[in-house]
Amino acid sequence: MYGWTGKILRVDLTKGKTYKESTMNYASKFIGGTGIASAILYNEVPPEVRPFDPENRIIFNTGPLTGTMAPSCGRWSVTMKSPVTEAYSDSNGGGFWAPELKWAGYDHIVVHGRAEKPVYLWINDDVVEIRGASHLWGRDTWKTQEMIREELGDPEVKTVKIGPAGENMCLGGCTIGDISNAAGRGGSGAVMGSKNLKAIAVRGTGGVKIADLDKFEEVCEEMHEKIKSVSIYDKFSKGGTPWLVHDGMIKASGREHTEEAKKVMIDKFMPYFVKSKGCYNCPMHCGHVYRVQEGPYAGIEGEGCEANAINDFTSTVGCYDVPFVLKCNEVCDRLGMGVDEAGHMYAFAAELYKKGIITSKDTDGMEFRLGDQEAILEHIRKMAYREGFGDVMADLVVKGGKRIGKGAEEVALNRNLKKQLSYPLRSSYTQALSYSTSTRGSCHLKSTPFVYEMWLPAWYPMEYVREVGQEKFGDPEACITPGNPDGKALMTTEGEYMCYVCDFTIICKFVTQKTIYDALNIADIARMLTPLTGIEYKREDLVKTAQRINAVQRAFNCREGYRREDDYPPPATFKEYKMTFGKKVVIEQNKYDKLLDEYYTMHGVDLKTGIPTRQRLEELDLKDVADDLTKRGILKEFEKKAKSGEKLVPVSSTAEG
Amino acid sequence: MQKVLIVDPEKCTGCGICESACAFSHTTSCNPVRARIKVVKWEPEGVDIPIFCQQCEKPVCADVCPVSAIRRDEKTGALLHNYDICIGCKMCMIACPIGGISIDSIDGRIIKCDLCDGDPRCAKLCPTKAIEYMRADSVGMVKKRKGAEMLRNVKTLLTGN
Questions:
Q1: Tens digits of per-residue pLDDT, B50-104?
Q2: How open is the CA angle A435-A438-A439, to the nearest 5 degrees?
Q3: Looking at beta carbons, which residues of chain A come within 8 Å of B44?
Q4: d(C-alpha B57, C-alpha A499), whole Å
Q5: For residue B25, what is the nearest residue in chain A, using CA coordinates?
Q6: B31 and A103: CB-CB below 8 Å?
């Protein structure tokens, strides 16, 4: 077996048993990563099974490229029915755990059931053990890793684990690889906690087999070089996501920054970033080690304070203090808490408090004032432990809002999208559409809401931006007309292909066209997959796989009750305007309606309901999904079928890239 | 003029490209367990140090070997280990003060850095040049320059202002 290990590890925590299944049952249609995971979820987690039921699956994924010489292929992902969205969700993390799992001999781990007492999984090549974790339960993620390594007598053991947040089934509870690589979204930590699964420890010595060694080596080296030659390599490799997001977004908004905001720009973080850090085999090494040596937070050190954390613990909560951001990041890593969830819930509570919807009687005396560092840290702790009002906060915006009532749900409306954390999406039609149609709830990682309209104009000469517009979308103005919905369904769809390819081969999105236009594209990834696996892959094959996986995820969500109305941005999106590169952008509902129709047509989705059509599903070799939807009365046989000879939009407008 | 494979741990990001490249070029699979170079890490301090054979001037490994399986390559200066002569007693591994010699757990052989016959793969692919293959006379100069820069940056020292 080349590329894949060929084995999926199945873990039944109720029976305390493990067994193996062949990856090749799924690999030809879904390749790997969240692709194979989506297929398994669809087959095995019907609507009758809710996220915290033992029968929910939590699936840990690698891809055929993982753990090889291919650059930046060290990421893992986790897929499940999410307690946040009550539908499909996945999240991914970087670091070193995923390659170790491949070397131990597994492409995926599918966990179901519930252990009677806390356990952890130990995988060491052929040895797979379900070991007691009562001594680990309650420990933070760093201590947990330390204790596991000591117990197993090997400092090279890699772990993915939950902290107190996941143990207490806080919906913001996430899974943490190494000490900071968090799969933050969707409550994966909470699902692990619901199964009494504390950690998965891996050590592997088998390596990955390659079909054509010389060719693979040649192509991989070429790709390493390509990444190091991208125009923003110097800036991104040194500044990481804090630079990426701040620089790009500052340029796009054209706004002057307040004195406060200047205190937390990227240049103020650099003195605390003592060194660059890289994930497995990555030439971009966009991570950092940080250290605080003075002040009230002196002594903290850690890794991976990214752009989201910076936003979450600065403007979102009204603080403008760099060491405070680093402190919150470290606290969240240790607790196994998503940073977005922690920061945004404080802001949500602050808004409710200001409006009088909650009072100090409800909040154990906390006033949720913006800028109150002590209160924010206390809030994060209480949320992780579901203590007092923290129990409501732990249910996040939609469920928490419902519990509070008294108008909280209306306030929540503009803070959630498909039940995930969000905010009005006004920068461009592509942004609004990408986020809204993401199958895991509001997110920027299922398409490319920024690369064409924000980062291309921010970092490349205008001539090049026009060239890209012409080549890729047939319109030189395509990347500089954020307020014009024409062509944006195609832009969103192209972005989807890139993201899905990253997610099922698993390669980091930061070294691909999802983020950097002159980085690796889909054709490049196909050129690596071919000598790796010995199977000929071309761009079209990967695009078709992307379409297939997206259809499965959409069908899964439709089974859970999602429909067209779930593909709309928060209401406030249509109410105000935003400036993007000096252009006023107004997202109008009737134009968005038409844009969504166009997107649906491209995806073979029924315009009225948002359900994939039988014709499309069968074209994508998903007849079993179509039959399942029909059996459940979701797909009606009389649904409008495309007239014979009428083609859906072709796979892609470009031949390469 | 011989070249030396030199490490600057402050530049190391811990990415392990060196391990992958080393294992891949010496064996037939992607398996860093078979690499002759390994990055030793301390988290969360963020210390990453690649460790490999330093091709010592007074090689304890060669001295202790009962069958003289370790010999100097005149061209590259590398201490080369000969599988055909080696009896696998592992005394070289035990004697080495820095862990430059280890065992390939897949085939049981003693492995150590061989400088890739004068074109070390790790140095070629390291994205930050934490590992460099440079002329022996340059090595000291690189470090001296770094030290001098620290003094240069202290303006009061030089201008008296």
A1: 999 999 999 999 999 999 999 999 999 999 999 999 999 999 999 999 999 999 9
A2: 155
A3: 142, 179-180, 289, 301-303
A4: 52
A5: A217
A6: yes
- Count of Cβ atoms closer than 10 Å to residue B135 Cβ: 11
B15 → closest Cβ in A207, A208, A278: A278
Per-residue pLDDT at A580: 85
Cα(A63)–Cα(A22) distance, integer angstroms: 14
pLDDT digit string, tens, across residues A164-212: 999 999 999 999 999 999 999 999 999 999 999 999 999 999 999 999 9
Chain A to chain B Cβ contacts (< 8 Å): 94
Q: Are A526 and A657 in contact (CB under 8 A)?
A: no
* pLDDT tens digits, A428-437: 999 999 999 9
Give CA–CA dist A198/A180, Å, rounded: 16
Distance CA A36, CA A30 (A): 5
Q: What is the pLDDT of residue A194?
A: 98
- Chain B within 8 Å of A138 (Cβ-Cβ)? no
Query: How close B29 gets to chain A, by Cα (Å)?
Result: 5
In the predicted model, is pLDDT for residue A645 greater than 80? no
Using a cut of 0.90, tell me whether the model's pTM lies above it.
yes
Look up the ipTM and state it: 0.92
Peptide bond into B44 cis (omega under 30): yes
Dist CA A94 CA A285 (whole Å): 11
- Enumerate the residues of chain A whose CB falls inside 8 A of the CB of residue B130: none
Closest CA of chain A from B86, distance in Å: 24
| Chain B residues closer than 8 Å to A69 by CB | 20-21, 24, 30
The contact set of B with A (CB < 8 A) is 10, 13-17, 20-21, 23-25, 27-34, 43-46, 48, 105-106, 125, 127-128
Q: Do A281 and B15 touch (CB under 8 A)?
A: yes
For position B161, what pLDDT does the model report? 53
Asked if the Cβ–Cβ distance from A208 to B24 is below 8 Å, we say no
User: Is the CB of A574 inside 8 Å of chain B's CB atoms?
Assistant: no
- Per-residue 3-state assignment (H helix, E strand, C coil) for A524-576: HHHHHHHHHHCCCCCHHHHHHHHHHHHHHHHHHHHHCCCCHHHHCCCHHHHCC
In chain A, residues 297-356 whose CB comes closer than 8 Å to chain B: 301-303
Half-sphere exposure in the Cβ direction for B149 (13 Å, CA): 6
The partner residues of A178 in beta bridges, in order of sequence, read: none
- DSSP letter for B115, please: G
What does the pLDDT read at residue A579?
Answer: 84
How big is the CA angle at A53 (ends A52 and A57), to the nearest 5 degrees?
A: 85
- pLDDT band for position A641 (cuts 50, 70, 90): very low
Residue A642: is its pLDDT beyond 60? no
Structure tokens at A598: 């166009």
pLDDT band at B1 (very low <50, low <70, confident <90, very high): confident
Q: Do A221 and B31 touch (CB under 8 A)?
A: no
Pairing of strands A175-177, A76-81: unpaired
Mean pLDDT, chain A, integer:
93
CA A226 to chain B, closest CA, distance in angstroms equals 12
Q: Kind of pairing, strands A76-81 and A88-93?
A: antiparallel
Q: List pLDDT tens digits, range B9-61.
A: 999 999 999 999 999 999 988 999 999 999 999 988 899 999 999 999 999 99
Distance of residue B63 Cα from the nearest chain A Cα, in angstroms: 31
Q: Do A281 and B46 touch (CB under 8 A)?
A: no
